[in-house]
Automatic annotation (TrEMBL):
It holds the Pfam family Hexapep_GlmU. This is Glucose-1-phosphate adenylyltransferase. GO terms for molecular function: ATP binding; glucose-1-phosphate adenylyltransferase activity. Signal peptide: none annotated. Pathway: Glycan biosynthesis; glycogen biosynthesis. Residues 18-287 form the Nucleotidyl transferase domain. GO terms for biological process: glycogen biosynthetic process. The record marks 70, 108 as: Could play a key role in the communication between the regulatory and the substrate sites. It catalyses: alpha-D-glucose 1-phosphate + ATP + H(+) = ADP-alpha-D-glucose + diphosphate. Homotetramer. Belongs to the bacterial/plant glucose-1-phosphate adenylyltransferase family. InterPro entries: ADP-Glc_PPase (IPR011831), ADP_Glu_pyroP_CS (IPR005836), GlgC_bac (IPR023049), GlmU/GlgC-like_hexapep (IPR056818), NTP_transferase_dom (IPR005835), Nucleotide-diphossugar_trans (IPR029044), Trimer_LpxA-like_sf (IPR011004).
Amino acid sequence: MQPAPSSRPDEPCRRTYAMVLAGGRGKRLGPLTDRRAKPAVPFAGKLEIIDFALSNCVNAGIRHIGVLTQYKAQSLIRHLERGWGFLAATLGEYVDVVPAQQQVGEAWYAGTADAVAQNVELIREADARWVLVLAGDHVYKMDYAVMLADHVASGAAVTMACIDVPRHEASAFGVLQLAEDGSGRVAAFAEKPSDPAPLPGRPDRALASMGVYVFDADLLLAELARDAADRTSSHDFGHDLLPALVARGLVHVHDFARSCVNTTPQGPYWRDVGTVDAYYAANMDLVQVQPQLNLYDDDWPILSQQRQLPPAKFVFDELGGRCGQALQSLVASGCIVSGALVRRSILFSKVHVDEGSAVEDSLLLPNVRCGRGVRLRRCIVDKHCRLPDGFTAGLDPDSDRARGFFVTPGGVTLITPEMIGQAGRVG
């Protein structure tokens, strides 16, 4: 597994320390995060969500990275240790796994800013001039080197990446308003407002923060110390630090369209997969003939743990009878489709689907086993589930709810091992 080469000037990247905030539970993902942190949720057949932020760093030339973990982090830590140990430590490249350690008093991380504040020694140790703060739970491809270049050129103390989103969705994000002088300065910022400010001339759109920030290191260290001493603060970037910096005129904006990798005619692709419906939709985007998120770009690969698994296999070859086939689907390594039909679905690694089964518009996470005659439609089946012969789900939402399955507002049925009387496993 090798990172993509970079031909851009690398001075800002070499002097940048990236802190990936990966300690959140992600409550809106429901049962998907009962046993794992949100950044460790599987995605796209063979990845985990955190792989996008880390791959963006490595592809952009940022090789000093700390991942701050907290909530149910074991599977995430395992993934980072096994999948991200390829950087050259002899050249000073690394991904540090940083569990919450109660470094200040006896408290765990009180907020995103507090998580960074408790680990400022990592910034000092890296002798960083700039600090890139990232959420570890978003799906997108971004060249952080372009954002860093914009930050340096603007002379800003803080730069915030943004994307315009439908206004009716903007209450889930931090919302920006820009100064009218065209300088790119952020004039106002509100975290998850009930009535998001619209874009000028576009009343149906709003400008949302992506949770990607560049700070001058000296300023960040000073602001974290100030915030830590403020007993009225919730010690959060969105609620506390950024509004205070915006009020002082220190924050500039970076338009994600400038740094998005593989922008399509539909615009730059960025997804906060914060709900089960959003997670399902982002995965299902990938089975389209021309998906907006390009996972086949050799110049900007999404890196991950590469397990040694055999190729996917489809048996048998009996037209009109037993025939294993997958149509408009992603099928990962180690899968066996035996006399079954898979349509518009994603089979993650080591999924087995047995004879007579039909899987449609569904996500089967790693190591799922489907017995004979299983019928699934618009389902997410969590890791390690064993579905018995004749099992059905997704055909009748009311019946699924009565059986104890999780049915989303969008009508997607989520099944975990515990829901079908099987013991769950870490991850």
